[in-house]
Design a protein that fits this description.
The chain is of the alpha/beta class and 295 residues long. The chain has three domains: 84 residues, Winged helix-like DNA-binding domain superfamily/Winged helix DNA-binding domain (Arc Repressor Mutant, subunit A, Orthogonal Bundle); 98 residues, Periplasmic binding protein-like II (D-Maltodextrin-Binding Protein, domain 2, 3-Layer(aba) Sandwich), CATH 3.40.190.10; 93 residues, D-Maltodextrin-Binding Protein, domain 2 (3-Layer(aba) Sandwich), CATH 3.40.190. Strand 1 and strand 2 form a beta hairpin. It is rod-shaped, with a radius of gyration of 32 Å. It starts with a helix and ends with a helix.
Amino acid sequence: MDLKRLKSMTVLAEELHFGRAAERLGIAQPALTQQIQALERDIGVQLFSRTKRSVRLTASGRVMLDEALRALQQVERTILVARQAGRGQLGHIEIGFVGSAVFSGVLSGAIARYRAANPLVEFRLNELGILHQLHDIASGRLDVGIIRLPVKSPMPDLTITAIYHDPIILAIPARHPLAKLKSVPPKQLQQEQFVAVQIQEGVGFNAQVAELCTAAGLTPHITQRAGQFTALAGMVAGGLGLAFVPSSVKNLKVPGVLYRPLANYHQQSDLAMVHRKSERAPAVLSFIKELKQPA
């Protein structure tokens, strides 16, 4: 059905006068008459009863007017939605993240800022390991990932960008003698027991810790492992050992745990954003820009 004819029908139904309706529509009166006649032929019923002095809706016209108004409103909404989606103001973003990313506030801050400007964009968050995220982004199941560097053999169709620098520090039981130091020399750690997060071979936080220990000539004696840094901090608080953690873990504020830097050794566990090089979705692209902004 011709939307122009439908629009003409609704305007004429409001004005009930061909001259005024044609003026509102910005067309000549004969053109409006032709549009209404063509619409009536298309649907096979008379919509208006016309005399030399008056124009009235027929019973069929009154019923059709309600449907026509709804149809035009839906068309307007469809156009609005398409324009919003094209500007990145509407859409759906699927995000993966490593659990330790939450301590930095980088992801939550970017989402909060983005939603303040784009409240119609929906987010879905998935806590996943690094390799899982890389495969899901490459396959299209995720749009954006937040991982910890380094990544072994990154996929060529993905872009990886560091967005947060997170120094590696020590979590120490509050009553431990080393807690009295402002910074801890690695040589004083040789006889200590450590707790650590689960190993992801060659990637992420553990790879950076391994590099740090090699540089410092330290072989930590690991007695227990935890799946997450929150559980790791609980082990430290219980006196089960020391732990290497990203500096952002300090935001946990676990009672019984103090944090100290390593003396003369500075190693970072950077958080990075991952996305497809071929990404074209406006909402995803604008969120990627937001993640790159300083918190």
